[in-house]
Amino acid sequence: MYRTEHPDPQFERENYECLNGTWDFAVGKPHGRENCALDGKIEVPFCPESKLSGIGVTNLICDCLYSREITVLESDLQGRLVLRFGAVDYSAQVFVNGRAAGGHTGGYTAFGVEITPFVHVGKNRITVAVHDDVRENVPSGKQTAEKEAYGCFYTRVTGIWQTVWLERTPKAYIRSVTYVAHAFSGKVTLSLQTEGKAPVDVAITFNGKEMGRVRDTENRGVYDIRLAETHLWEIGRGGLYNVTLRYGDDEVKSYFGLRDVKFEGRKFFVNGKSVFQRLVLDQGYYPDGLYTAPSAEDIRRDVAQALAFGFNGVRLHQKVFEPRHLYECDRAGLMVWGEYASWGVAYHTLDALDTLAAEWTETVEQFRNHPSIVLWCPLNEAWSDLKDAAKVRDIRFVESMYRLTKRLDGTRPCVDASGGYHGKHTDLFDFHCYHTPEEVAHYIQALEEKDELIMDTLYPPRVEQGALYDGKLPVHASEYGGVAYNPDGRVNGLQSAVACVRETSAWGYRACDTETAFLEQYVNTTQQLLSCKKLCGFCYTQLYDIEQEQNGLLFYDRTSKWSEAGRKRIIECNRQIAAVERENARQIGGKDVCSC
Protein backbone atom coordinates (compact mmCIF):
# COMPACT_ATOMS: atom_id res chain seq x y z
CA MET A 1 0.00 0.00 0.00
CA TYR A 2 1.25 3.47 -0.93
CA ARG A 3 0.87 6.65 1.13
CA THR A 4 0.07 5.24 4.57
CA GLU A 5 1.21 8.35 6.50
CA HIS A 6 -1.37 10.72 7.94
CA PRO A 7 -2.33 13.16 5.17
CA ASP A 8 -2.53 16.33 7.31
CA PRO A 9 0.15 16.86 10.00
CA GLN A 10 -1.52 20.15 10.96
CA PHE A 11 -4.71 18.42 12.11
CA GLU A 12 -3.90 14.87 13.11
CA ARG A 13 -5.90 12.49 15.29
CA GLU A 14 -4.25 9.34 16.62
CA ASN A 15 -7.11 6.95 15.76
CA TYR A 16 -6.48 7.28 12.04
CA GLU A 17 -7.31 4.38 9.72
CA CYS A 18 -5.85 4.68 6.23
CA LEU A 19 -8.15 3.37 3.47
CA ASN A 20 -5.61 3.64 0.67
CA GLY A 21 -4.90 0.45 -1.25
CA THR A 22 -6.96 -1.74 -3.56
CA TRP A 23 -10.55 -0.65 -4.25
CA ASP A 24 -13.08 -1.96 -6.75
CA PHE A 25 -13.38 0.29 -9.80
CA ALA A 26 -15.60 0.76 -12.84
CA VAL A 27 -16.10 3.41 -15.51
CA GLY A 28 -19.62 4.82 -15.82
CA LYS A 29 -22.53 6.04 -13.71
CA PRO A 30 -23.89 4.05 -10.75
CA HIS A 31 -27.01 2.61 -12.48
CA GLY A 32 -27.93 0.45 -9.49
CA ARG A 33 -24.32 -0.34 -8.46
CA GLU A 34 -24.35 1.77 -5.26
CA ASN A 35 -24.04 -1.32 -3.03
CA CYS A 36 -22.13 -4.04 -4.81
CA ALA A 37 -18.64 -5.14 -5.77
CA LEU A 38 -17.27 -3.88 -9.10
CA ASP A 39 -15.38 -5.82 -11.75
CA GLY A 40 -12.21 -3.72 -11.95
CA LYS A 41 -9.49 -2.86 -9.42
CA ILE A 42 -7.60 0.37 -8.71
CA GLU A 43 -4.88 1.42 -6.27
CA VAL A 44 -6.09 4.43 -4.28
CA PRO A 45 -5.05 7.28 -4.01
CA PHE A 46 -3.80 7.24 -7.61
CA CYS A 47 -6.06 8.40 -10.44
CA PRO A 48 -6.96 5.86 -13.16
CA GLU A 49 -4.86 7.74 -15.73
CA SER A 50 -1.69 7.08 -13.70
CA LYS A 51 0.57 4.03 -13.86
CA LEU A 52 0.51 3.60 -10.08
CA SER A 53 -3.26 3.14 -10.14
CA GLY A 54 -2.74 -0.16 -11.94
CA ILE A 55 -4.89 1.08 -14.83
CA GLY A 56 -3.01 3.81 -16.73
CA VAL A 57 -5.76 4.57 -19.27
CA THR A 58 -5.65 8.21 -20.43
CA ASN A 59 -8.91 8.29 -22.40
CA LEU A 60 -11.48 10.85 -21.30
CA ILE A 61 -13.28 9.43 -18.25
CA CYS A 62 -16.34 11.49 -17.32
CA ASP A 63 -17.91 9.14 -14.77
CA CYS A 64 -16.50 6.37 -12.60
CA LEU A 65 -17.19 4.36 -9.46
CA TYR A 66 -15.07 3.27 -6.49
CA SER A 67 -16.15 0.69 -3.93
CA ARG A 68 -14.75 -1.25 -0.95
CA GLU A 69 -15.79 -2.73 2.37
CA ILE A 70 -14.85 -1.39 5.80
CA THR A 71 -15.22 -3.02 9.22
CA VAL A 72 -17.15 -1.15 11.90
CA LEU A 73 -16.78 -2.00 15.60
CA GLU A 74 -19.35 -1.63 18.36
CA SER A 75 -17.19 1.09 19.93
CA ASP A 76 -17.33 3.12 16.68
CA LEU A 77 -21.05 3.63 17.15
CA GLN A 78 -20.56 5.27 20.56
CA GLY A 79 -19.06 8.36 18.93
CA ARG A 80 -18.69 9.65 15.36
CA LEU A 81 -17.28 7.76 12.40
CA VAL A 82 -16.19 10.10 9.59
CA LEU A 83 -15.06 9.09 6.09
CA ARG A 84 -12.51 11.66 4.86
CA PHE A 85 -11.11 12.39 1.40
CA GLY A 86 -8.04 14.53 0.71
CA ALA A 87 -9.34 15.41 -2.76
CA VAL A 88 -11.61 13.92 -5.44
CA ASP A 89 -11.73 15.48 -8.90
CA TYR A 90 -14.34 16.77 -9.61
CA SER A 91 -17.68 15.99 -7.91
CA ALA A 92 -18.23 13.03 -5.61
CA GLN A 93 -21.32 11.36 -4.17
CA VAL A 94 -20.77 8.95 -1.28
CA PHE A 95 -22.99 5.92 -0.64
CA VAL A 96 -22.87 3.72 2.47
CA ASN A 97 -24.57 0.35 2.20
CA GLY A 98 -26.45 1.72 -0.80
CA ARG A 99 -27.74 4.87 0.93
CA ALA A 100 -26.67 8.37 -0.09
CA ALA A 101 -24.56 9.72 2.80
CA GLY A 102 -23.12 12.96 1.41
CA GLY A 103 -20.89 14.42 -1.24
CA HIS A 104 -18.69 17.27 -2.40
CA THR A 105 -18.12 19.45 -5.45
CA GLY A 106 -14.61 20.69 -6.27
CA GLY A 107 -11.55 18.70 -7.26
CA TYR A 108 -8.88 20.18 -4.99
CA THR A 109 -10.06 20.45 -1.38
CA ALA A 110 -10.65 17.99 1.44
CA PHE A 111 -14.07 16.94 2.68
CA GLY A 112 -15.59 14.52 5.15
CA VAL A 113 -18.87 12.61 5.41
CA GLU A 114 -20.14 11.41 8.78
CA ILE A 115 -21.26 7.83 8.15
CA THR A 116 -22.30 6.85 11.71
CA PRO A 117 -26.06 6.85 10.90
CA PHE A 118 -25.50 4.61 7.85
CA VAL A 119 -23.33 1.80 9.23
CA HIS A 120 -23.75 -1.27 11.45
CA VAL A 121 -21.34 -3.50 13.34
CA GLY A 122 -19.40 -5.68 10.92
CA LYS A 123 -18.81 -5.30 7.18
CA ASN A 124 -20.13 -2.20 5.42
CA ARG A 125 -19.77 -1.14 1.79
CA ILE A 126 -18.54 2.31 0.77
CA THR A 127 -19.21 3.45 -2.81
CA VAL A 128 -18.05 6.73 -4.36
CA ALA A 129 -19.57 7.96 -7.63
CA VAL A 130 -17.45 10.56 -9.45
CA HIS A 131 -18.24 12.94 -12.30
CA ASP A 132 -15.38 14.84 -13.94
CA ASP A 133 -15.42 16.43 -17.38
CA VAL A 134 -12.66 18.98 -18.02
CA ARG A 135 -14.56 20.26 -21.07
CA GLU A 136 -17.16 21.78 -18.76
CA ASN A 137 -16.82 25.28 -17.29
CA VAL A 138 -15.05 24.07 -14.14
CA PRO A 139 -11.57 24.56 -12.61
CA SER A 140 -9.16 21.96 -13.98
CA GLY A 141 -5.71 23.61 -13.93
CA LYS A 142 -3.27 22.23 -16.49
CA GLN A 143 -5.31 19.10 -17.32
CA THR A 144 -5.76 18.75 -21.08
CA ALA A 145 -9.25 19.00 -22.53
CA GLU A 146 -7.96 17.52 -25.79
CA LYS A 147 -7.46 13.83 -26.54
CA GLU A 148 -3.73 14.04 -25.80
CA ALA A 149 -1.45 16.23 -23.68
CA TYR A 150 0.09 19.16 -25.56
CA GLY A 151 2.09 22.35 -24.93
CA CYS A 152 1.67 23.24 -21.26
CA PHE A 153 -1.38 21.00 -20.76
CA TYR A 154 -0.83 17.57 -19.25
CA THR A 155 -2.57 14.25 -18.65
CA ARG A 156 -5.99 14.45 -17.00
CA VAL A 157 -6.60 13.42 -13.38
CA THR A 158 -9.97 11.83 -12.64
CA GLY A 159 -11.47 10.83 -9.31
CA ILE A 160 -9.70 10.11 -6.02
CA TRP A 161 -6.16 11.51 -6.03
CA GLN A 162 -5.44 12.05 -2.35
CA THR A 163 -5.61 9.81 0.72
CA VAL A 164 -8.90 8.37 1.98
CA TRP A 165 -9.18 7.66 5.69
CA LEU A 166 -11.55 6.87 8.56
CA GLU A 167 -11.57 9.18 11.54
CA ARG A 168 -13.13 8.35 14.90
CA THR A 169 -14.12 11.13 17.28
CA PRO A 170 -16.23 11.47 20.42
CA LYS A 171 -19.57 13.28 20.09
CA ALA A 172 -18.00 16.45 21.51
CA TYR A 173 -15.14 17.19 19.14
CA ILE A 174 -12.90 19.82 17.52
CA ARG A 175 -14.07 20.89 14.07
CA SER A 176 -11.11 23.10 13.15
CA VAL A 177 -8.47 25.47 14.50
CA THR A 178 -7.17 28.79 13.17
CA TYR A 179 -3.92 30.51 14.15
CA VAL A 180 -3.06 34.19 13.74
CA ALA A 181 0.61 34.78 14.55
CA HIS A 182 1.84 38.03 16.09
CA ALA A 183 5.56 37.78 15.40
CA PHE A 184 6.65 41.10 16.90
CA SER A 185 4.74 40.68 20.17
CA GLY A 186 5.54 37.00 20.63
CA LYS A 187 1.99 35.70 20.86
CA VAL A 188 -0.58 33.75 18.87
CA THR A 189 -4.35 34.08 18.62
CA LEU A 190 -5.93 30.64 18.50
CA SER A 191 -9.55 30.09 17.46
CA LEU A 192 -11.23 26.74 18.09
CA GLN A 193 -14.39 25.65 16.32
CA THR A 194 -16.05 22.83 18.25
CA GLU A 195 -19.22 20.77 18.54
CA GLY A 196 -20.77 19.76 21.84
CA LYS A 197 -19.75 20.81 25.34
CA ALA A 198 -16.37 19.90 26.86
CA PRO A 199 -13.38 21.53 28.62
CA VAL A 200 -10.55 22.98 26.50
CA ASP A 201 -6.87 22.24 27.08
CA VAL A 202 -4.27 23.73 24.70
CA ALA A 203 -0.54 23.02 25.14
CA ILE A 204 2.10 24.73 22.96
CA THR A 205 5.72 23.53 22.85
CA PHE A 206 8.91 24.33 20.93
CA ASN A 207 11.58 21.60 20.76
CA GLY A 208 9.80 19.81 23.57
CA LYS A 209 9.73 22.81 25.93
CA GLU A 210 6.38 24.26 26.99
CA MET A 211 5.76 27.72 25.52
CA GLY A 212 2.16 28.36 26.53
CA ARG A 213 -0.96 26.69 27.93
CA VAL A 214 -4.69 27.39 28.15
CA ARG A 215 -7.28 25.51 30.19
CA ASP A 216 -10.87 26.65 29.80
CA THR A 217 -14.11 25.14 31.07
CA GLU A 218 -16.23 27.94 29.58
CA ASN A 219 -15.24 27.14 25.96
CA ARG A 220 -14.69 30.76 24.95
CA GLY A 221 -13.34 29.64 21.57
CA VAL A 222 -10.75 32.41 20.99
CA TYR A 223 -7.52 32.61 23.01
CA ASP A 224 -4.64 35.10 22.92
CA ILE A 225 -1.61 33.14 24.12
CA ARG A 226 1.65 34.88 24.98
CA LEU A 227 4.59 32.58 24.24
CA ALA A 228 7.34 32.03 26.80
CA GLU A 229 9.99 32.32 24.05
CA THR A 230 9.86 33.87 20.59
CA HIS A 231 11.13 31.59 17.82
CA LEU A 232 10.43 33.11 14.41
CA TRP A 233 9.65 31.04 11.34
CA GLU A 234 12.47 31.98 8.96
CA ILE A 235 13.31 31.38 5.31
CA GLY A 236 15.56 28.37 4.85
CA ARG A 237 15.23 27.33 8.50
CA GLY A 238 11.54 27.02 9.29
CA GLY A 239 10.78 26.85 13.00
CA LEU A 240 7.46 25.42 14.15
CA TYR A 241 5.60 25.43 17.46
CA ASN A 242 3.85 22.12 18.17
CA VAL A 243 0.32 22.24 19.58
CA THR A 244 -1.76 19.62 21.37
CA LEU A 245 -5.47 20.47 21.35
CA ARG A 246 -7.78 18.64 23.74
CA TYR A 247 -11.52 19.06 23.88
CA GLY A 248 -12.85 16.62 26.45
CA ASP A 249 -11.88 13.19 25.08
CA ASP A 250 -10.96 14.51 21.63
CA GLU A 251 -7.26 15.18 20.95
CA VAL A 252 -5.65 16.73 17.87
CA LYS A 253 -1.96 17.30 17.12
CA SER A 254 -1.18 20.51 15.26
CA TYR A 255 1.46 23.23 14.73
CA PHE A 256 1.96 26.85 13.65
CA GLY A 257 4.77 29.20 12.68
CA LEU A 258 5.41 32.65 14.11
CA ARG A 259 6.08 35.09 11.28
CA ASP A 260 4.94 38.33 9.68
CA VAL A 261 4.75 39.00 5.91
CA LYS A 262 3.83 42.16 4.03
CA PHE A 263 4.59 44.46 1.11
CA GLU A 264 5.78 47.94 1.98
CA GLY A 265 6.51 50.30 -0.88
CA ARG A 266 8.21 48.22 -3.56
CA LYS A 267 9.66 45.66 -1.14
CA PHE A 268 8.50 42.39 0.38
CA PHE A 269 9.23 41.87 4.07
CA VAL A 270 9.44 38.75 6.20
CA ASN A 271 9.65 39.49 9.93
CA GLY A 272 10.63 43.08 9.15
CA LYS A 273 13.48 42.11 6.79
CA SER A 274 13.48 42.92 3.07
CA VAL A 275 13.49 39.67 1.09
CA PHE A 276 13.74 39.19 -2.67
CA GLN A 277 11.46 36.30 -3.63
CA ARG A 278 13.56 33.81 -5.60
CA LEU A 279 10.79 31.44 -6.65
CA VAL A 280 10.62 28.47 -8.96
CA LEU A 281 7.47 27.09 -10.57
CA ASP A 282 6.37 23.66 -9.25
CA GLN A 283 3.29 22.19 -10.95
CA GLY A 284 2.96 19.08 -8.80
CA TYR A 285 3.14 16.34 -11.44
CA TYR A 286 4.90 12.96 -11.08
CA PRO A 287 5.77 10.49 -13.88
CA ASP A 288 3.98 7.51 -12.32
CA GLY A 289 1.45 9.20 -10.03
CA LEU A 290 0.50 12.37 -12.02
CA TYR A 291 -1.11 14.66 -9.37
CA THR A 292 -0.14 12.27 -6.57
CA ALA A 293 3.37 11.86 -5.17
CA PRO A 294 4.29 8.15 -4.83
CA SER A 295 5.58 8.78 -1.30
CA ALA A 296 6.14 11.48 1.31
CA GLU A 297 9.84 11.18 0.50
CA ASP A 298 9.12 12.33 -3.08
CA ILE A 299 7.56 15.48 -1.64
CA ARG A 300 10.53 16.11 0.67
CA ARG A 301 12.86 15.64 -2.29
CA ASP A 302 11.06 18.28 -4.39
CA VAL A 303 11.24 20.79 -1.54
CA ALA A 304 14.92 19.99 -0.99
CA GLN A 305 15.69 20.33 -4.72
CA ALA A 306 14.17 23.81 -4.87
CA LEU A 307 16.26 24.93 -1.89
CA ALA A 308 19.40 23.27 -3.25
CA PHE A 309 19.15 25.29 -6.48
CA GLY A 310 19.24 28.49 -4.42
CA PHE A 311 15.54 29.34 -4.53
CA ASN A 312 13.82 30.51 -1.35
CA GLY A 313 10.26 29.83 -2.48
CA VAL A 314 7.94 28.11 -4.93
CA ARG A 315 4.82 28.90 -6.91
CA LEU A 316 2.74 25.77 -6.32
CA HIS A 317 1.09 26.37 -9.65
CA GLN A 318 -2.40 25.71 -11.08
CA LYS A 319 -3.18 23.08 -8.48
CA VAL A 320 -3.99 22.96 -4.77
CA PHE A 321 -1.21 20.80 -3.35
CA GLU A 322 -1.82 18.26 -0.63
CA PRO A 323 -1.36 19.40 3.01
CA ARG A 324 1.73 17.22 3.46
CA HIS A 325 3.51 19.16 0.72
CA LEU A 326 2.77 22.41 2.57
CA TYR A 327 3.98 20.74 5.77
CA GLU A 328 7.36 20.03 4.18
CA CYS A 329 7.57 23.67 3.01
CA ASP A 330 6.66 24.79 6.54
CA ARG A 331 9.41 22.61 8.03
CA ALA A 332 12.05 23.72 5.54
CA GLY A 333 11.28 27.46 5.57
CA LEU A 334 10.36 27.54 1.88
CA MET A 335 8.05 30.40 0.86
CA VAL A 336 4.92 29.48 -1.11
CA TRP A 337 2.47 31.29 -3.34
CA GLY A 338 -0.87 29.68 -2.45
CA GLU A 339 -2.59 29.21 -5.81
CA TYR A 340 -5.64 27.59 -7.31
CA ALA A 341 -6.31 25.47 -10.41
CA SER A 342 -8.19 28.34 -12.05
CA TRP A 343 -7.67 27.36 -15.68
CA GLY A 344 -10.60 25.60 -17.31
CA VAL A 345 -12.97 28.36 -16.22
CA ALA A 346 -14.41 30.87 -18.70
CA TYR A 347 -13.55 34.35 -17.42
CA HIS A 348 -15.62 36.19 -20.02
CA THR A 349 -18.83 35.34 -18.17
CA LEU A 350 -19.75 35.10 -14.50
CA ASP A 351 -21.29 31.63 -14.94
CA ALA A 352 -18.52 29.84 -13.01
CA LEU A 353 -17.79 32.55 -10.44
CA ASP A 354 -19.82 30.90 -7.69
CA THR A 355 -18.18 27.53 -8.40
CA LEU A 356 -14.69 28.97 -8.28
CA ALA A 357 -15.40 31.16 -5.26
CA ALA A 358 -16.82 28.24 -3.27
CA GLU A 359 -13.77 26.03 -3.60
CA TRP A 360 -11.33 28.93 -3.30
CA THR A 361 -13.03 29.73 0.02
CA GLU A 362 -12.42 26.13 1.13
CA THR A 363 -8.81 26.38 -0.06
CA VAL A 364 -8.03 29.51 1.95
CA GLU A 365 -9.81 28.18 5.05
CA GLN A 366 -8.04 24.81 4.87
CA PHE A 367 -4.54 26.18 4.18
CA ARG A 368 -4.36 29.56 5.91
CA ASN A 369 -2.53 28.10 8.95
CA HIS A 370 0.57 27.22 6.89
CA PRO A 371 3.34 29.76 7.64
CA SER A 372 5.06 28.96 4.32
CA ILE A 373 2.17 30.54 2.37
CA VAL A 374 3.17 34.19 2.07
CA LEU A 375 0.75 35.31 -0.67
CA TRP A 376 -2.57 34.20 -2.17
CA CYS A 377 -3.00 33.91 -5.95
CA PRO A 378 -6.57 32.85 -6.86
CA LEU A 379 -6.25 33.39 -10.65
CA ASN A 380 -3.54 33.01 -13.28
CA GLU A 381 -3.38 34.76 -16.67
CA ALA A 382 -7.03 35.77 -16.65
CA TRP A 383 -6.79 37.63 -19.95
CA SER A 384 -9.30 36.07 -22.31
CA ASP A 385 -10.53 32.67 -23.42
CA LEU A 386 -7.58 30.39 -24.16
CA LYS A 387 -9.05 29.30 -27.49
CA ASP A 388 -10.82 32.51 -28.50
CA ALA A 389 -9.06 35.79 -27.65
CA ALA A 390 -12.17 37.72 -28.68
CA LYS A 391 -13.86 36.47 -25.50
CA VAL A 392 -12.32 39.00 -23.11
CA ARG A 393 -12.65 38.44 -19.37
CA ASP A 394 -15.32 40.12 -17.29
CA ILE A 395 -13.39 42.34 -14.87
CA ARG A 396 -15.96 41.62 -12.14
CA PHE A 397 -14.65 38.05 -12.05
CA VAL A 398 -11.16 39.22 -11.12
CA GLU A 399 -12.22 41.88 -8.67
CA SER A 400 -14.63 39.55 -6.88
CA MET A 401 -11.91 36.95 -6.30
CA TYR A 402 -9.55 39.58 -4.87
CA ARG A 403 -12.18 40.98 -2.50
CA LEU A 404 -13.18 37.48 -1.39
CA THR A 405 -9.58 36.54 -0.65
CA LYS A 406 -8.92 39.62 1.44
CA ARG A 407 -12.13 39.06 3.38
CA LEU A 408 -11.17 35.44 4.11
CA ASP A 409 -7.60 36.28 5.16
CA GLY A 410 -6.39 39.80 5.79
CA THR A 411 -3.02 38.64 7.16
CA ARG A 412 -1.46 38.00 3.74
CA PRO A 413 -1.13 39.99 0.52
CA CYS A 414 -3.02 38.85 -2.58
CA VAL A 415 -2.25 39.16 -6.29
CA ASP A 416 -5.61 39.27 -8.03
CA ALA A 417 -4.65 37.57 -11.30
CA SER A 418 -1.03 36.68 -11.90
CA GLY A 419 0.33 37.58 -15.31
CA GLY A 420 0.41 41.30 -15.84
CA TYR A 421 -3.23 41.89 -16.77
CA HIS A 422 -4.58 43.06 -13.45
CA GLY A 423 -7.86 44.42 -12.19
CA LYS A 424 -8.25 47.65 -10.29
CA HIS A 425 -7.43 46.05 -6.92
CA THR A 426 -4.29 44.03 -6.20
CA ASP A 427 -1.48 44.06 -3.62
CA LEU A 428 1.13 43.12 -6.24
CA PHE A 429 1.61 44.03 -9.89
CA ASP A 430 3.32 41.03 -11.46
CA PHE A 431 4.12 40.08 -15.04
CA HIS A 432 5.08 37.02 -17.08
CA CYS A 433 8.05 37.44 -19.39
CA TYR A 434 9.14 34.56 -21.65
CA HIS A 435 11.51 36.71 -23.69
CA THR A 436 15.16 36.79 -24.69
CA PRO A 437 17.73 38.44 -22.40
CA GLU A 438 17.95 41.36 -24.84
CA GLU A 439 14.19 41.95 -24.70
CA VAL A 440 14.21 41.62 -20.90
CA ALA A 441 16.92 44.32 -20.72
CA HIS A 442 14.65 46.67 -22.68
CA TYR A 443 11.70 46.00 -20.36
CA ILE A 444 13.78 46.40 -17.18
CA GLN A 445 15.19 49.70 -18.45
CA ALA A 446 11.64 51.02 -18.98
CA LEU A 447 10.68 50.00 -15.45
CA GLU A 448 13.82 51.45 -13.84
CA GLU A 449 13.85 54.76 -15.72
CA LYS A 450 10.16 55.48 -16.41
CA ASP A 451 8.14 53.23 -14.07
CA GLU A 452 6.61 51.66 -17.15
CA LEU A 453 5.71 48.00 -17.67
CA ILE A 454 5.71 47.38 -21.40
CA MET A 455 6.31 43.62 -21.66
CA ASP A 456 2.63 42.64 -21.76
CA THR A 457 1.52 44.60 -24.81
CA LEU A 458 0.35 41.32 -26.36
CA TYR A 459 -2.56 41.51 -23.94
CA PRO A 460 -3.25 45.24 -23.47
CA PRO A 461 -6.08 45.85 -20.97
CA ARG A 462 -8.98 48.00 -22.00
CA VAL A 463 -9.65 50.73 -19.45
CA GLU A 464 -12.83 49.01 -18.29
CA GLN A 465 -11.12 45.63 -18.17
CA GLY A 466 -8.10 46.32 -15.99
CA ALA A 467 -5.53 48.76 -14.69
CA LEU A 468 -2.22 50.03 -16.04
CA TYR A 469 0.75 50.06 -13.69
CA ASP A 470 0.66 53.14 -11.44
CA GLY A 471 4.38 53.23 -10.58
CA LYS A 472 3.70 52.63 -6.89
CA LEU A 473 2.80 48.98 -6.31
CA PRO A 474 5.52 46.35 -5.83
CA VAL A 475 6.45 44.54 -9.05
CA HIS A 476 7.30 40.86 -9.48
CA ALA A 477 8.55 38.90 -12.51
CA SER A 478 6.36 35.95 -11.53
CA GLU A 479 7.15 33.82 -14.60
CA TYR A 480 10.25 33.95 -16.79
CA GLY A 481 12.60 31.55 -18.52
CA GLY A 482 10.75 28.51 -19.82
CA VAL A 483 13.77 27.61 -21.95
CA ALA A 484 13.72 24.00 -23.14
CA TYR A 485 16.96 22.09 -22.82
CA ASN A 486 17.04 18.34 -23.38
CA PRO A 487 20.65 17.14 -23.45
CA ASP A 488 20.11 13.43 -24.04
CA GLY A 489 16.78 13.24 -25.83
CA ARG A 490 14.59 12.33 -22.88
CA VAL A 491 10.83 12.63 -23.04
CA ASN A 492 8.59 11.89 -20.03
CA GLY A 493 11.69 11.18 -17.97
CA LEU A 494 12.67 8.17 -20.12
CA GLN A 495 15.26 7.62 -22.84
CA SER A 496 13.74 8.42 -26.23
CA ALA A 497 14.66 8.64 -29.87
CA VAL A 498 13.85 12.35 -29.82
CA ALA A 499 17.03 14.03 -30.99
CA CYS A 500 16.32 17.69 -30.33
CA VAL A 501 14.07 19.89 -28.21
CA ARG A 502 12.65 21.41 -31.36
CA GLU A 503 10.79 18.16 -32.08
CA THR A 504 7.03 18.51 -31.66
CA SER A 505 7.04 15.96 -28.81
CA ALA A 506 9.22 18.22 -26.65
CA TRP A 507 7.96 21.72 -25.92
CA GLY A 508 9.24 24.94 -24.38
CA TYR A 509 8.76 28.69 -24.81
CA ARG A 510 12.23 28.83 -26.40
CA ALA A 511 15.02 26.29 -26.78
CA CYS A 512 18.76 25.88 -26.33
CA ASP A 513 20.85 23.09 -27.85
CA THR A 514 23.82 23.20 -25.46
CA GLU A 515 24.40 23.59 -21.74
CA THR A 516 26.63 26.60 -22.39
CA ALA A 517 23.93 28.39 -24.39
CA PHE A 518 21.30 27.69 -21.73
CA LEU A 519 23.50 28.88 -18.87
CA GLU A 520 24.35 32.11 -20.67
CA GLN A 521 20.67 32.90 -21.11
CA TYR A 522 19.76 31.83 -17.56
CA VAL A 523 22.49 33.84 -15.86
CA ASN A 524 22.04 36.92 -18.07
CA THR A 525 18.26 37.14 -17.50
CA THR A 526 18.36 36.24 -13.79
CA GLN A 527 21.08 38.78 -13.01
CA GLN A 528 19.07 41.50 -14.74
CA LEU A 529 16.08 40.71 -12.54
CA LEU A 530 18.17 40.56 -9.36
CA SER A 531 19.81 43.90 -10.12
CA CYS A 532 16.56 45.79 -10.76
CA LYS A 533 15.85 48.05 -7.78
CA LYS A 534 12.15 48.11 -8.59
CA LEU A 535 11.56 44.34 -8.54
CA CYS A 536 10.70 42.43 -5.35
CA GLY A 537 11.04 38.94 -6.81
CA PHE A 538 11.11 36.48 -9.70
CA CYS A 539 9.81 33.00 -10.47
CA TYR A 540 11.67 30.73 -12.89
CA THR A 541 9.71 28.32 -15.12
CA GLN A 542 10.26 25.60 -13.96
CA LEU A 543 11.73 23.09 -11.47
CA TYR A 544 11.33 19.93 -13.57
CA ASP A 545 10.09 18.79 -16.99
CA ILE A 546 6.50 17.57 -17.22
CA GLU A 547 5.60 15.14 -19.99
CA GLN A 548 6.14 16.98 -23.30
CA GLU A 549 7.10 20.26 -21.60
CA GLN A 550 10.89 20.11 -21.45
CA ASN A 551 11.85 23.43 -19.81
CA GLY A 552 12.65 22.22 -16.31
CA LEU A 553 15.92 22.50 -14.41
CA LEU A 554 15.51 18.77 -13.77
CA PHE A 555 14.21 15.90 -15.86
CA TYR A 556 10.67 14.69 -15.12
CA ASP A 557 12.10 11.90 -12.96
CA ARG A 558 13.95 14.63 -10.99
CA THR A 559 17.44 13.60 -12.14
CA SER A 560 19.91 16.34 -13.10
CA LYS A 561 20.41 17.80 -16.57
CA TRP A 562 23.67 19.52 -15.69
CA SER A 563 27.35 19.00 -15.33
CA GLU A 564 28.61 19.74 -11.83
CA ALA A 565 30.02 23.05 -13.04
CA GLY A 566 26.74 23.97 -14.76
CA ARG A 567 24.65 23.21 -11.67
CA LYS A 568 27.04 25.25 -9.53
CA ARG A 569 26.70 28.21 -11.88
CA ILE A 570 22.88 28.17 -11.59
CA ILE A 571 23.08 28.01 -7.79
CA GLU A 572 25.62 30.81 -7.51
CA CYS A 573 23.52 33.01 -9.79
CA ASN A 574 20.35 32.45 -7.78
CA ARG A 575 22.11 33.23 -4.50
CA GLN A 576 23.51 36.58 -5.59
CA ILE A 577 22.33 39.54 -3.55
CA ALA A 578 19.37 41.38 -5.03
CA ALA A 579 19.30 45.16 -5.28
CA VAL A 580 16.41 45.44 -2.80
CA GLU A 581 18.26 43.31 -0.22
CA ARG A 582 21.57 45.13 -0.03
CA GLU A 583 20.93 46.35 3.50
CA ASN A 584 20.73 42.65 4.53
CA ALA A 585 23.87 41.61 2.64
CA ARG A 586 26.96 40.19 4.24
CA GLN A 587 30.38 39.49 2.81
CA ILE A 588 31.66 35.93 2.30
CA GLY A 589 34.95 35.52 0.52
CA GLY A 590 34.75 39.09 -0.76
CA LYS A 591 31.36 38.51 -2.45
CA ASP A 592 27.91 39.82 -1.55
CA VAL A 593 25.51 37.00 -0.68
CA CYS A 594 21.95 37.12 0.56
CA SER A 595 21.53 36.74 4.30
CA CYS A 596 17.83 35.87 3.96
What attributes does this structure have?
596 residues; alpha+beta; 7-stranded parallel beta sheet; 6-stranded antiparallel beta sheet; 7 helices; 16% helix
List the helices and strands and how they pair.
Elements: E1 16-18, E2 21-27, E3 40-44, E4 63-72, E5 80-85, E6 88-89, E7 91-96, E8 99-105, E9 111-114, E10 122-131, E11 159-160, E12 164-169, E13 173-182, E14 187-195, E15 200-206, E16 209-216, E17 222-226, E18 241-247, E19 250-256, E20 261-264, E21 267-270, E22 273-274, E23 277-282, H1 296-308, E24 313-316, H2 323-332, E25 335-339, H3 353-367, E26 373-377, E27 379-380, H4 395-408, E28 417-418, E29 429-433, H5 437-450, E30 475-481, E31 483-484, E32 490-491, E33 494-495, E34 510-511, H6 515-531, E35 537-541, H7 564-574, E36 586-588, E37 591-593
Parallel strand pairs: 23-24, 23-35, 24-25, 25-26, 27-28, 29-30, 30-35, 31-34
Antiparallel strand pairs: 1-12, 2-3, 2-4, 4-10, 5-9, 5-12, 6-11, 7-8, 7-10, 13-14, 14-17, 15-16, 15-18, 18-19, 20-21, 21-22, 32-33, 36-37
What does this structure look like?
- This protein is 16% helix and 31% strand.
- It is α+β, with helices and mostly antiparallel strands and 596 residues long.
- It has a 7-stranded parallel beta sheet with strand order 26-25-24-23-35-30-29, with helices on one face.
- Helix 1 packs across helix 2 (323-332), helix 3 (353-367) packs parallel to helix 4 and helix 6 runs parallel beside helix 7.
